[in-house]
Amino acid sequence: MSAVAAPPAGTAVPDVGTARFGSTLTGTGRMVRFILRRDRVRIFWWTFSIVAFYLYFMAALGTFDAEAMAGRAALMETPSGIAMGGPGYGVEDYTPERAVANEGITWWVIALGVMSILHMVRHTRTEEESSRSELVRANAVGRHAPAVAAIATLALVNAFIAVVSGAILVAMGGEYVTVADSFGLTVGVALASMVFGLVAFVFAQLTAHGRGAIGLSMAVLGAAFFARAAGDMIETHGSPLSWVSAFAWAQQMRPFVDLTWWPALLSLTAIVLLLLLGSFLASRRDFGGGMLAERAGQAEAASSLAGPIALAWRQQRWALFWSALGLGLLWFASGTMLPDISGLMSDMVESNPMIGALFGDDPEGFTAAFLGIMLLYGMLCVAAYAIVMGGRGKAEESAGRAELVLARPVARSTWYGAQLLVAGIGTVVLAVVTVYSMWAGGAAAGEDFFSFGDYTEVLWPYIPAVLCFLGFTATMYAWFPQHAGLAWILLAYSFGIGMFGALLENLPEEANYANPLYWLPEPFAESPEASHVIGLGLAVVVLFALAFIGFRRRDIPAV
Prior knowledge:
membrane; 2 domains; ABC-2 family transporter protein
């Protein structure tokens, strides 16, 4: 029998349960440097993409003359313009910098909000889930140091993007461009994105898995977007509903029109409250676990769970469920606005001839134009899901679970094919949910311009287009696993070229070819060209074939 020697008399024994506050933050500085070094490539691409978007948007709008800007202002006063843009400050005298603020803030908050959510979950919940945090905390690293480092680095990245973007706006110049307005815009966006990052920090304490934290955080982001859009459509320049959203806190600062700083205090207040709540929860949960109890599994697995397809389904099913539920509700609600769109647009045509010149005077054309915009955004959401699920193989490989599966009598192609099969089915399901939710919302509200068959005819060409994003992600992971995240560049490019490519008169037609959505017809206005749809289908087949070839040829793990 062994005995443990007692400490010498007079030696103080540390009380683990009452550790000093400072000790819980030991090593925070080193963790900050580690995260910045580890994410330097990711941070570079996020920064480059956002800053380039500022530069591109400002330069593109600078090519508009006064008449074109007046037409654009008329467009932004329509319900679809308000929903996809902003509350309409400055449309009475629309200038490029005012258009940048009114139309761009929403999309910069979405982009940086997604970045903030992914950053926070990656460096908190995902690290615990993969057990890497245990290795880190085995060193002289305090309990809260990783989370504080994640928050600090997120603040640094958002601040850096805000400073560089503000400097770009100042350098571009303009009639109403001032230093205060430029940095008011970028700081408001940065603070709003920090709000969503700290929402993810709270959910990372509640859930036991990174996927759950990301899904719930994205749901909050989507709800905030919809609340702002609906609130701005209820009342000019925003209603009380708008003010519950962090999007509105950035937009209501009114840069380049009448800069007001106090709405930024709402973002700062939300940041402080979420930080306190997240810290409270983090101090009271078990390491590696979440505050929400997980349901106990069955003692024995069912025979239906055997095989790579069942494994992939269990890994992806909740992401698909929450994505389908969230997108379904969002696009159903959008569909219910269709009858109002035609009525509002008809009234606007009577009062503003410029709108009639842009859209004509056919209510069915108004509805088709609004649906076209909604479908573009909807399919970009589906493409984002395809990219995330296409990266599931990388997540399994990084966590070491892929090696365990492949150590059994499971072929590489079978395991990887199962992951892509389930991801492909999920992508198709979300495309179906997106289109038919719009139809259901319109039907429920009494919109009768387009039938179920019309929506079906619009749907099927989108399927190979969104699967191209999945195939490209799979190919990048198979051949260049360290750079699989570059698949997001295709999505960003497709969004930018699809939404703003027409603004550049000298943009060559070939610049559109890399965008899979470019090859689709105008929804409800044109019939799909068989050659384009077949070409997209062949592109999907080639991309998946390249993915399987690359995955079979390289080492595992390679990430």
